[in-house]
Every structure is written in C-alpha cells, then in structure tokens.
Amino acid sequence: MTMHIKVRRVEWLAIALLISLQATMLTWSARQPEHVNGVPILRVAAPKTERVSASISPYGPGFEQELLALFAAEKGYHLEIIEVDSPAQAMQALEEGTVHLVVGLGGKAPESLASPIVAGPAYATSRPILLHSSKRYTLRDEQEICDNPILTTQQRYLADTLSDAAEGVNCVPWTSKVDGVRVTPILDTLNEDRARFALVDDWSYSLWQPFFLSVKPAKTINREINYRWFWRSEYEDLHKALTAFWQEREQDGQIATLHERYFGFLPEEADYYELVNLSDSIRTNLPRYSDSILKYSKKYDIDPLLLAAVIYQESRFDADATSKTGVKGLMQITQSTARVLGVDRNDPRQSIKGGAKYLKMLWSEFESMDLDPWDRWFFTLASYNQGLGHVQDAINLSRSMGGTGRTWHDLKKVLPLLAWEKYYSQTKYGYSRGYEAVHYVENIRYYYYIMHGLVGLARPEAEHLGTLLSAVPSSWPVI
C-alpha cells in the first residue's frame, strides 16, 4: 500500500481552537480517523526536536519520522505529523482526541493515564546532563544547583530529575524554563556566556555538541529517561496495529539498526581540539581542492561532503601526508592501488580522482547484497580502510554468529574480532585490524554529519561547504 507523509507546523493556538471545536461539536464516533483514498489518516503530535525532524543530519528525515513511516507503511496509514511546542500540548491534544498518537516524549510513563490513553513500551533511553559554559566555573558542589538559575526546556521530567538530584543537599533547584522543547536556544545562551548552567538530555546534547564548543558537561544525573509512544485504545484497529508493531520491533532489531544510523557514530564527548582543527581545515585547506572534489564526486556519484570527510580523515587535507605503512597523498592510496587506478597519488587532484574512483569500485562490489543504501556506504568505507576481503570475512563471521551480516550495526560488532586468532583463523583473508575500520567509519560519519550541520546552521564554514552540498547526486540515499 502506498504511504503518504504530510508534515504540518502549526501554532498551539490553532491546535487549541481545533480541540475546542471538536470537543464541543463532535461526538466520539465522529472523531474516528478520516480516510484519504480509502487509507485511514493517522494524526500524530510530536515535539519540535532534532530526534523527531532532522534539521542537520544527512542520514534521513528524523529518527521518529522514520519509525512512523515504518509503521504507516506496514499497517497502512496516511500520516499527518503536527509539531507542537511542549509535551503538555501533545498530551492534551491526545486527551481531547485531536490527534491519535503522540511520539518523541521522554520521561516516566504517567502512573495513571487518563483512560483510554495507552503508553507503549520504552524503546530508547537517555539521561539528564547538567551543562556549563566553559567561560565560567563548572559545578563545584551540589549546593550550586540551587544557588544558580539552571536553564531547561518545557519537558517536565528534566526539572523533576534535577529536584531528585538536589534532595541530598536539602535545597530547591532554581530552574528557568525556555519556551518549547528545542535545546539550541539553551546551548546558544551558554555558548555566548549569557548563563552558567543548563539541563538537557544527553541524547540531545550529543547531537548538538560539535556546534557549541563553549558548552561542556558538568554532571550526568543518574536517572533514566525512557521514550515511548502514547495512543488512544478506543481506536480498536489502531490499538491492535500499534501493539503488534512494537511486538514485531522487539523481534527484528530494526530500531537498533535505525538508532545506529542516526546516533551510533556520536562520541560520548567531542574532542574540542579536533573540532577546531576541522573548522580551520575547512576554511583554509578545503578551498584548494573544492573543484576537484566537485568534479570527481559528480563523476562517481558520491556526495561531495562525504568525499571531503574521507579526505579529512585520511590526511587532514595535507597533500604530502605519508603513513608508516607506505600510503600517501590526500586519499592515502597505496602504490599498487594507484597503479591499478591509473593515477599519480602524489598529485592532489589525481589522488582525489583515484580515491573517489576506488570508493565507487568498492561500492559496486556490494550490489548483489541489496543492502540499505547507508549500510552499503558504511561497508564501502570499511573496505577502503581494511580491504574488501576482510569486510567479506566480517560479513561471513556475523552470519556464523547469528547476525545478518547486512547492517553496519551487525558488522561493527564483529570487525574487531578479526584481530583475534580465535576468529581470523577461520576466515579466508586472515588477520585484520578490524577495530581500526570501525573507528575509521565512525569518524567519517561524524565529520560528514558535522559538515552537513555547519551548512544547515549557516555557520561561517558554510561559505566553503555550501557549494559542495548543492552538488549531491540524485542517486544519493534518500529516505
């Protein structure tokens, strides 16, 4: 069945008016889901967060949006996503029957939900994290939680966990809530040294951390934040479909695979000096090679920003870079590979040509596996680092250990095992520093994410990256 997704951004005033009208004018039977060409409409309320609708990630439209798209495709619904400014607004809309489903909310499931609202299973967790401006002191003692204003969002569970953390010092935290649920205004306030402390969830912080370098973690609060979907059980068909959907997800691992694509590359804490170096390289070194990156990314159907991320990982845009293993140049190509590719690896532009050509050759080797487009590129990057044969060994090893061998989520678990004799002795191509391949791929994914985000946020580096982003090939993975 064809799936349709329609995203609507509305002000809460409009939602409140709609709730009021429906509450006074419609009976319950009249609020049953309407249909579009025979397909039932599913109205979903979701907070305006990066997890729901991606604004900086190159890896898809958003984690929650893809989960919703998966549900709609499997169960046959036409989606309308209504973005709201707070969890309270989302839950009120659900209670009033304006929407049928609420997604993207974190916190404890309410102990008593107003019937007929149902809380789905927890499918992801995070923890609250207290942040501070690096231009001021970090948290020196627990009493400071109560002596200083702490910025936070409208998500109630954050303030609640802060109150729990302050119980040990017998004081009341001083919280200052900003409008909405987006963390970027808070991070910007700390980054500009207009506040000392803020409290967000560590999931959101990890997504935005590389773009706010003057914001540092002060304390992680040991409280789990669980994410769930909420819906109305009175829609019998929808209730059955959602219950079945979550039971199926517990079995097939699709949520773990999706989580890996959107978040699996994020470090626990960003390397400040590495990020500064990346920014400097984009502004000073990248422009020398932009024309060649554009030319050969177009020729070999590669996103220019991904190719730039590979070059940065390989050589930091240093055309004279030489490894102790003998690889040289911007793309760190071996002499034998350069000969096969027909390029002079010492020439920066030919190095870019050779690297792009080699990436596309490796990518083509996975054609028969019919992989998810992103997994196929992650396999390609691992092959560029360790060789195609070792990646094929890892695929076979994953399958022998009960995995699918078809996702990066599976492959990154077994690649490090190729350095252990117990495992590589059973393979065709033998020993491999597979752990290096995992580190290599995750670094490139991270740099690629950052470059994409710098453009989306219109940071100064975008002047040098925007042209590259505008040349993404039409064949590039689109979710």
TrEMBL record:
It is found in: Cell outer membrane. Residues 293-399 form the Transglycosylase SLT domain. Its main location: membrane. SUPFAM superfamilies: Lysozyme-like, Periplasmic binding protein-like II. One of its GO terms (cellular component) is cell outer membrane. InterPro entries: Lysozyme-like_dom_sf, Solute-binding_3/MltF_N, Transglyc_AS, Transglycosylase_SLT_dom_1. This is Transglycosylase. It comes from Desulfovibrio subterraneus.
